[in-house]
Amino acid sequence: KQNKMKKRLYFAILAVVALLFACNRENELVDTDGNVYETVRVGTQTWMSQDLRVTHSPDGSALREFRPGLEEPSYLAYGGKTLYNAMAAQYGAGSGDGLVRGLCPKGWHLPSRDEWQVLSDYVTAHPELWGTSGTVSRALASQQWPSAENPTALNQTGFSAMPTGYLISYPRHTEILDYEENINRRWVERGSTYYWSATHNEHYPLTPPAPNDSIVIPGTPGWGGWLGNDSFQVHSYIFLLNINQDPPRISSLPDVHYCAIRCVKD
């Protein structure tokens, strides 16, 4: 009788362990490549608390790897970061439910400009989340942020943003021939985080010059400067965070540039 009791207890424990394991598996966030991500709830939203690092689209097709000026869905894995152009971030845009899944796992999507604003506004309205850091940006930044003077005061939200910067995807005038050799210098503001949104900036492209005006194409001799052709490219909004600037800002970049991705739950 005692052995029967032990067996029942043993199988009961196994059943509980199996149930817990099943629940954990159900709550895991896994991308197309099998990478597993941690998540965090901030207000009414549930976010990935790590940057996306998938290299295949949800349909299993491989993304192109970076090369200067590539205007199709592509990524760049470099220096421990994985950045994407907006064409990859917004892969399959225009889904019937109004959400842009992009490269996100099933049940998750690329946040819109408004969803990024909801995140910032929620943390702004709840100073108890700032901790001793005293700012919204620091409440969202990882304790591993390299330039932080007091890391333990950061990341009270658990969002864990890391400074990825963004990559200029085509060469400027003097860098045309040695662009790939100098790719490390093409990262801009690596003390900041830039995350893509699913929302295009309708102010771009601006009206191009008249046909008889000179337009220099990116990647050709004579190209240079932030104005010029940047103004005639499609832009998407980005969420920009820096621990020395508060609050985080909504800005925009040309779709051919490369930024990080965070997904938000449907």
Brief account:
With 266 residues, the chain is an alpha+beta fold.
Describe the protein.
- Helices cover 18% and strands 23% of the residues.
- With 266 residues, the chain is α+β, with helices and mostly antiparallel strands.
- The strands form six sheets. The protein has a four-stranded mixed β-sheet with strand order 5-6-7-14.
- The radius of gyration is 22 Å and the shape is globular.
Q: Give the proportion of residues in helices.
A: 10-25%
* Whole-angstrom Rg: 22 Å
User: What fraction of residues sit in β-strands?
Assistant: 15-25%
- By secondary-structure content and strand pairing, the structural class works out as alpha+beta
Count up the helices: 4
Describe the secondary structure blueprint for this structure.
Elements: H1 2-27, E1 29-30, E2 36-37, E3 39-42, E4 45-48, E5 64-65, E6 74-78, E7 81-85, H2 86-89, E8 108-109, H3 113-124, H4 136-140, E9 166-167, E10 187-188, E11 193-200, E12 235-242, E13 245-254, E14 258-259, E15 264-265
Parallel strand pairs: 5-6
Antiparallel strand pairs: 1-2, 3-4, 6-7, 7-14, 8-15, 9-10, 11-12, 12-13
Descriptive labels:
alpha+beta, three-stranded antiparallel β-sheet, 4 helices, 15 strands, 18% helix, globular
